[in-house]
């Protein structure tokens, strides 16, 4: 079974208790469980990794590039947390493993928040962006990945 990788960056391990008005009460364990269950339903094995370390995320993206080339991985959904707004290294890592599809996902609508959250270093390297759907956004991103690269509605138009 092909894999989809879900990556979560700094502080997302605190989901459920961290600023619930912004991120809700669902824990990361719950998010990972419903992503895995959804993946199984649509025929993909979902693997999840959260790290507070930029380098660990970059190493995993490099490995994902190898898995993609080997035909083992459909793509990656990443919520880079605040690294979104600071990390040129993450941008370069995603560019470096092109054409691995990487979907950027944010729980909150970053554009309706502080100005420093409006810029993303990841967006120019991303295959798609999901913003502001709460934790359901991870499922939107998984479905978007599958629709864009496997079952596009456009290809099914009469
Ligand atoms: C976030 C938005 C970022 O600005 C913030 O630093 C996060 C979470 C989100 O999911 O809405 O850690 O990526």
What can be said about this structure in brief?
The chain is of the alpha/beta class. The chain has helices spanning 20-23, 28-42, 54-69, 88-96, 137-149; strands spanning 3-8, 45-50, 73-79, 102-106, 128-131.
Poorly predicted parts? none
Shape: globular
Strand fraction: 15-25%
* Beta strand count: 5
CATH-wise, what's the superfamily? Dehydroquinase, class II
Q: If classified by CATH, what would the architecture be?
A: 3-Layer(aba) Sandwich
Describe the 3D structure:
With 158 residues, this protein is of the alpha/beta class. It has a single domain (3-147), classed as 3-Layer(aba) Sandwich (Rossmann fold), CATH 3.40.50.9100. It is 36% helix and 18% strand. It has helices at residues 20-23, 28-42, 54-69, 88-96, 137-149; strands spanning 3-8, 45-50, 73-79, 102-106, 128-131. It has a 5-stranded parallel β-sheet, with helices on both faces. Helix 3 (54-69) runs parallel beside helix 4 (88-96). The model has no long low-confidence stretch (mean pLDDT 97).
Characteristics:
alpha/beta; 5-stranded parallel sheet; 5 helices; 36% helix; 158 residues; binds 1,3,4-trihydroxy-5-OXO-cyclohexanecarboxylic acid; Rossmann fold; globular; 18% strand
Write the layout of secondary structure elements.
Layout: E1 3-8, H1 20-23, H2 28-42, E2 45-50, H3 54-69, E3 73-79, H4 88-96, E4 102-106, E5 128-131, H5 137-149
Parallel strand pairs: 1-2, 1-3, 3-4, 4-5
The structure holds 1,3,4-trihydroxy-5-OXO-cyclohexanecarboxylic acid.
